[in-house]
Amino acid sequence: MNPRPILIAFALLLSFTATAQSVPDRAAKRAKQRAEYKAQNKVDRSVDEAVDDAFNSIGNLFKKKKKKAEPAPDTNSDAQSSESSPAANPYGGMIGNEDAAPYEPFTNEYSVSLDMEITEIKKNGKTETNTMSMAVTTDQYAVLVKDQNGTEISRMIFNTQDGKTTMITTDKKGKKTGFRMKMPGVRKLAADAAEETADRFEFVQTGERKTIDGYGCEKIIVTDKKEGTITTSWVTQDLSINSKDVFAEMMGALGNKVKTGPNSVMERGFDGFPILSITEDKGKTYETHFSNIKVGEENIDRSLLDVSGIEIQSIGF
Asked: How many distinct structural domains can be found in the chain?
C-alpha cells in the first residue's frame, strides 16, 4: 500500500468525506520520489520506518486498486544531483522545502473531537472496517489510527504554534516511539488539494431528510468529476460547528489563506457536518461514519494529545 500525505487529510477530512474516500492521486509519484531519494541519500532507518508506518496506517484507510510499481531509478545516472532533483525533497515534499516561508503561529477558534469509521464492502460481501479518531484544540490537531481490533497503530499531532508535527508509531509488542519534526512543504500540498477540490466536486441538496444518531440530516449528492464516483452524504446542522469553518481553521493553521467567492472550495461545499457518507466505486462500497462528536474545549477527548510516557526524539530536518 502506497503511503499518502496525512496532513492533506487533516485539511480536507472534515469538509468533504468524498475526498477522503478518493485521496489525491499522488501516491505513485511520492513512492517514486522516495525510492530515488533513498538511492541517493542516507536516511536514518528508524526515522524513515516510523514515517512510513504513520503514512501507511492512514493509506490503509483509503485503499484503491494497486498500480504497477515504478521501476527503481538508475543510481548511476548523472541526470540530476540529489540537491537539484525533486527527489531531494523526501516524503513527497512535506518534510523538505527549506525555501518555505517561516511558519506563523495560529490559534484555532473551534475545538472538536470525533471518531471516523470507514467500512469497505467488497464485491464478495466481505467487509473491512478501520477507525480514525481526531481532535482539534485551540493550538493542536491530532489524528489517531486504530486497527480492526481497536489497537492504536499510529498517531500524528500538529502544533499550530510552532508548526511541528509529532509522529508516534506502535510496534507489534505495543512499544510506542515518537519523532517531532517540521514539515514546511505540507502547506503547499494542502493548498493544492484544496484548489483541486474546488473544481473537482459538485454538490446537490435533495431536501430528503432522516435522523441518524439523533441528528437531523439532509441528503446531499456529491459527484466526483475526476473519479466518476457519486457519494450520498447525510449532513446535519444540529451541531454548533460547520465543516466549512473547521476546514478554514485547518488551512489557516497550515499557513494558507482560504479563497472566497462563487468558485471557491468554501462556496462549493455545503453547510453543516457530514454524519454518514456512502460511495459506490467499481463494485465496492465505502461507508464513512462520524460519531462521538464533542464540541468545545472543555468537552473534547484530550487523550489523543497525551504523549506522557513516550520518548519523543526531535528531528532537525
From this structure: 1
The grid cell for 78 is 548523472
Computed from CA positions of residues 5, 9, 11, 12, in that sequence, does the dihedral angle turn out positive or negative? positive
Q: Which of 219, 158, 225 is nearest to 22 (CA)?
A: 225
Domain of 301 in residue numbering reads as 6-314
Task: Tell me, yes or no, whether 270 lies in a domain.
Answer: yes
Rounded Cα distance, 160 and 230, in Å: 34
Give the CA dihedral 29, 30, 33, 39, nearest 10 degrees: -130
Report the relative pairing of strands 312-314 and 176-182 from DSSP bridges. Answer: parallel
Interval 21-77: pLDDT, tens: 433 334 444 455 455 554 444 445 555 555 555 555 544 544 444 444 444 444 444
The Cα–Cα gap between 58 and 63 comes to 9
Predicted structure pTM score:
0.67
Closest of 148, 160, 181 to residue 10, by C-alpha = 160
Indicate whether 1 belongs to any domain.
Answer: no
